[in-house]
Amino acid sequence: MKSIVVGFFFVLALRSDLQAQTPFYQGKTITVLQGRDPGGAGDLRARAVTQFLQKHIPGNPTIIHEFMGGGGGLRAANHIYAVARPDGLTIGSVSSGMLSTAVLGGTGVKYDPGKFYYLGSPDGGGQFIFYTRKEAGINSVEKLRTTPGIRFGAQSVGHNNYNVVRLITFVLGMKDPRFVTGYSSPEIDAAILRGELDGRANTADSLIQRNPDWLEKNLMDWHGVLEMPKGVKHPRFGHIPEVETFAKSEKHRQLVAMQRSFRMIGSPFILPPGTPGERVDILQDAMRKAFQDPQFAKEYKKLAADDPEIVMPEALQQSIKELSSDPEVIELLKKLAGPGPLPAS
Question: Between β-strands 199-203 and 128-133, what pairing exists: parallel, antiparallel or unpaired?
Answer without folding.
Answer: antiparallel
